[in-house]
Amino acid sequence: MPRSHELRQARAAKKDEFYTQYLDIQKEVNAYLEYNPNVFRGKTILLPCDDPEWSNFTRFFAENFERYGLKKLISTSFAVESKQSKWYEPTLFETDSPKYDKDKTRTHGKIFVLDRDVNNSGRIDIDDLQWEYLQGDGDFRSKEIKALRDEADIIITNPPFSLFREFVAWIFEANKQFLILGNINNACYKEVFPLMQCNKMWLGPSISSGDREFRVPDEYPLEAAGWRIDDDGIHYIKVKGVRWFTNMEHGRHHEPYKLMTMAENIKYSKHKEVKGIGYLHYDNYDAIDIPHSDAIPSDYDGVMGVPVTFFDKYCPEQYEIVGIGTGELAGALGIKKNYRGRTDLALTKDGVSSCPYSRILIRKKQ
Ligand SMILES: C[S@@+](CC[C@H](N)C(=O)[O-])C[C@H]1O[C@@H](n2cnc3c(N)ncnc32)[C@H](O)[C@@H]1O
């Protein structure tokens, strides 16, 4: 089974307990700091849908609190009784605290705040994190967490896979800066695509191919193509198609994609569908099909259908996103009914018709 199916499966099964690796957070955050060393200075960061005792997000930003010049770090967790997975054990950090409550630990979320040198060590760091139980379960849609969202400047997390669309809407409702993980295919959701199209949201720079490893609960079946159990017995699953989504500037999405002309592609392309052949025209829309983003002909002025991974290379000064070739939004674009009676893009090769997987439509800017 292709590994790109794993996030979709997790979403369908509401398996949301995938914990992000420290290095993946560090690599991405470094790119924003390279572009603007003061990007976090004086800012309040909220890490919702987290689990501060398990999560690397809280650890990472708490460790870098002073270096980044943060004003305040807030992270919140979701109560175990509200989760699909009941995999849970309170940590010693919690059970050793006088605040520990054996009932609340299951029914209430927790909030961790870092904003000052509580232990008078002379610096603000992870040991100054203060925590308490939330009034509710920590659902990001609750009034309590919405108030924290409204207080924050930047929202950073790996949101529940099953609630990605709702999470994006929740951020945009409050008009916040954000950096969140999701699957590249989420860019095709009808609620998300228009945001990508009008450059209110783009991809982060550190992941554009391959897979990423996430820590998962011991109860999760390790039937994915890539998994491992480390020496401490901790389970990890590899997931393909993971990307950072953001509205924070990192500079790289303004770098034009270097491409060959149509004649060069036909002569030299590494893709057998293109080399010596050229490009097919869709049956039901005036555009040509580009089977791989690196085969976009630089000198073609018409509309082209490209795979959704084009967003990895998308430079809004170079290309305009015209629309999407599948689903509800495709009908609205004027794509005619295809051989299956649907408004998905279709093409015919050697007398056989098919619908290419998940195309977005682009046109070169003049
Ligand atoms: C993909 S995990 C990511 C955890 C952590 N942010 C990380 O990346 O290491 C998403 C987390 O959101 C939690 N969650 C699920 N539904 C939620 C909701 N409605 N509100 C808040 N958190 C939720 C899940 O229980 C899970 O712990």
Architecture overview:
- With 366 residues, the chain is α+β, with helices and mostly antiparallel strands.
- The chain folds into 2 domains: 249 residues, no CATH class; 110 residues, no CATH class.
- The chain is built from 11 helices and 17 strands.
- An 8-stranded mixed β-sheet has the order 4-3-2-1-5-6-11-7, sandwiched between helices. A 4-stranded mixed β-sheet has the order 12-13-17-14. Strands 8-10-9 form a 3-stranded antiparallel β-sheet, covered by helices on one side.
- β9 and β10 form a beta hairpin.
- The protein starts with a helix and ends with a strand.
- The structure holds S-adenosylmethionine.
- The site of S-adenosylmethionine has 20 residues, from β1 and α3.
* Domain count: 2
Ligand roster: S-adenosylmethionine
- Which consecutive residue ranges, at least 5 long each, have pLDDT under 50? none
Compute the gyration radius: what is it? 23 Å
Assign a percent range to the helix content. Answer: 10-25%
From the helix content, strand content and strand pairing, which structural class follows?
alpha+beta
Q: How many angstroms does the end-to-end distance come to?
A: 42 Å
Strand content: 15-25%
Report mean pLDDT, rounded to a whole number.
93
Helical stretch tally: 11
Strand order of the largest sheet: 4-3-2-1-5-6-11-7
Biggest pleated sheet = 8 strands, mixed
Assign an overall shape: elongated
Q: How are helices and strands ordered from N to C?
A: HHEHHEHHEEHEHEHEEEEEHEEEHEEE
Count the beta strands: 17
Defining key terms:
366 residues, alpha+beta, 2 domains, eight-stranded mixed beta sheet, four-stranded mixed beta sheet, 17 strands, 22% helix, binds S-adenosylmethionine
